[in-house]
Amino acid sequence: MRLEPGLAVVAVGGNSLIKGPDRMTVPDQYEAARETMVHIAEMIAQGWRVVITHGNGPQVGFILRRSELALHELHPVPLDAADADTQGAIGYMFQKALYNEFQRRGMNQLAVTVVTQVLVDRNDPAFQNPTKPIGSWMDEETARRRAAEQGWVVREDAGRGWRRVVPSPRPQRIIELAAIKALLQDGFVVIAVGGGGIPVVEDEEGNLVGVEAVIDKDLASALLAIEIRADLFLISTAVEKVALNYGRPDQRWLDRLTVSEARRYLAEGHFPPGSMGPKIEAILQYLEHGGKAALITDPPHIPAALRGETGTWFVPDP
C-alpha cells in the first residue's frame, strides 16, 4: 500500500530514546532522537506535513526518582509538572535534531513544540482503579510508608517489587488544538501531545487543574489525528512489522489489516495489553472515526514503509 503525501501524525515511543541500560544519559537520548528525526525529515522532504507526538515514560521516571532522592532538601515534583518538563525537554531534542537535519538538506522548515494539556473526565472510572506503574521500585515496607505519608496507591508488580500506580483516564479534548492547527497552517512541523499530554480536569468553575495521572500516548495521538483530520496515523515502535504469535515458532508477520481483522486478532489475545495492544486500540479508534490509513513500523523503515515496501498497514473495512 502507498499513500500520497498529506498530513500525518507520527507517534514516537519514549522508550525509543533509551537504546540500552548503558545509554540513558541526556546526550545518549539526543543521539537516539537525532537518528529518528532523520527518517521523519525524509518524510517531510517527500511532501508530508507532520505532527510528531512522543512517549515520556522513562524520562518522567527519571524526574520522579531525582525528586525522591532530593526530598531531604527540595520539594517534590508533581506528576503533571514532570509531564510538562519532559514535553519541553524531548521537544527541544526533536527541534534541534530537525533544525540541523533541515539545514543539512537545504530545507526551509522549522519545528516547534507545543506544551499540550489534555482534558480528562474527573469522573473517569480510572480514578477509582489506578493501574499505571510509575517511579521507583520499592520494598513493601517503603511502599506502604510512602502510601501512608503521601497518599499514594502502591501495588506489588509481577514479583519484582512494589511501585506506585496512578490512574490512566481516557483523553477527551486537546486544549491547545487550535494552536496546533494554526501552526500547521503556517507551515511549521509541530511536536505536541508529548507523553499523552498533561492530564487536566475542569473544576466547578471550568478552571483547569492538573491531576496525578498518565494518559496513554497512543490514544491521545489517535485523538489528535482524528481532530486534525490526518491522512495517516503512523506509530513508530521497536519492530518493523506487527506479528501474530510474536516470538513463537509459528510467528507470522502482517503486511495489511482491515479494522475487522485487527479487532478479531486483538480479541484473540495476539496483541497484549502491555505491548502492542494499546497501539492497535488507538489505530482502531482513529480508523473508526474517519481515518484513512495507519501504519506501524520502526524508525529506520519509515521511508520504505511509506513507499509500500514494509511495515504493517491498517485500513478501514471495505
Task: Give your account of this protein's structure.
With 318 residues, the chain is α/β, with parallel strands linked by helices. It has one domain: Carbamate kinase, CATH 3.40.1160. It contains nine helices and 17 strands. The strands form four sheets. Strands 3-9-2-1-12-16-17-15 form an eight-stranded mixed sheet, with helices on both faces. A four-stranded mixed sheet has the order 8-4-10-11. Strands 5-7-6 form a three-stranded antiparallel sheet. A hairpin with a 5-residue loop joins strand 10 and strand 11. Helix 1 crosses helix 3. The longest helix is centred in the first third of the chain and has 27 residues.
Key features of this structure:
Carbamate kinase; 9 helices; single chain; alpha/beta; 318 residues
List the helices and strands and how they pair.
Blueprint: E1 7-12, H1 26-45, E2 49-54, H2 57-69, H3 79-105, E3 111-113, E4 117-119, E5 132-138, H4 140-150, E6 153-156, E7 162-166, E8 173-174, H5 177-185, E9 189-191, E10 198-202, E11 208-210, H6 217-227, E12 232-236, E13 242-244, E14 252-254, E15 256-258, H7 259-267, H8 277-288, E16 293-297, H9 302-306, E17 312-315
Parallel strand pairs: 1-2, 1-12, 2-9, 3-9, 4-10, 12-16, 15-17
Antiparallel strand pairs: 4-8, 5-7, 6-7, 10-11, 13-14, 16-17
